[in-house]
């Protein structure tokens, strides 16, 4: 799951949690950890925003994922150094910053997608990858045309990268 929103936002959450309200973000993050298939976590790669839902205020979920073998990353350098097949990367407390406003050192959608593709492509059984440029929609709500265009450009880069 790769998103510029919080990992617990509606779109990524639908792939790994089942709950009666999209606003129950702590519970969604807990389901990411607790819900397993044959004793294994359902999602190997989780990259986006929403660090607050994986920290000490919500049962130290990041530490639990780390104990289970996940790399826990919070910036582009850590993401690039990640060696585990499984990774939890939260690059902001809530939604990620719009590309146009972010420093060059920030992790971009294409960076997260590249990491996910590198990890998942090693599975000879295939994989499913959800990549969401959520900030397009989030910039559109307040009619931030510059933000929308910036995020569309970032999504186009990620799309072209995936096709290649």
Task: Write structural notes for this entry.
The protein starts with a strand and ends with a helix. Helix content is 39%, strand content 14%. It is α/β, with parallel strands linked by helices. A hairpin with a 2-residue loop joins strand 2 (36-37) and strand 3 (40-41).
Topology:
Elements: E1 2-6, H1 10-13, H2 25-34, E2 36-37, E3 40-41, E4 45-49, H3 61-67, E5 71-73, H4 76-81, E6 87-90, H5 109-120, E7 131-132, H6 135-140, H7 145-163
Parallel strand pairs: 1-4, 1-7, 4-6, 5-6
Antiparallel strand pairs: 2-3
In short:
This protein is an alpha/beta fold and 164 residues long. It contains seven helices and seven strands; from the N terminus they run E-H-H-E-E-E-H-E-H-E-H-E-H-H.
Order of helices and strands: EHHEEEHEHEHEHH
Count of extended strands = 7
Structural class: alpha/beta
The portion of residues assigned to helices is 25-40%
Separation of the first and last Cα atoms: 19 Å
Individual helix count: 7
**Major sheet strand order:** 5-6-4-1-7
Structural Rg: 15 Å
Q: What does the largest sheet look like?
A: 5 strands, parallel
Q: Please state the average pLDDT score.
A: 97
Shape: globular
Strand content is: 5-15%
The low-confidence parts are none
């Amino acid at each position: 799951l790769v998103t510029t929103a919080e990992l617990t936002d509606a779109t990524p959450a639908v792939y790994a949690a089942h709950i009666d309200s999209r606003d129950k973000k702590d519970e969604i993050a807990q389901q990411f950890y607790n819900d397993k298939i044959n004793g294994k976590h359902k999602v190997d790669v989780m990259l986006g925003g929403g660090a607050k839902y994986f920290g000490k205020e919500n049962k130290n979920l990041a530490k639990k994922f780390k104990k289970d073998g996940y790399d826990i990353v919070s910036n582009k350098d850590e993401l690039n150094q990640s060696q585990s097949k499984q990774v939890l990367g939260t690059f902001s407390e809530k939604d990620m910053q719009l590309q146009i406003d972010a420093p060059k050192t920030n992790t971009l959608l294409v960076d997260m997608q590249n990491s996910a593709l590198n990890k998942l492509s090693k599975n000879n059984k295939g994989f499913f990858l959800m990549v969401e440029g959520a900030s397009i929609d989030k910039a559109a709500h307040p009619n931030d045309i510059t933000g929308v265009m910036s995020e569309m450009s970032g999504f186009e880069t990620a799309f072209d990268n995936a096709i290649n």
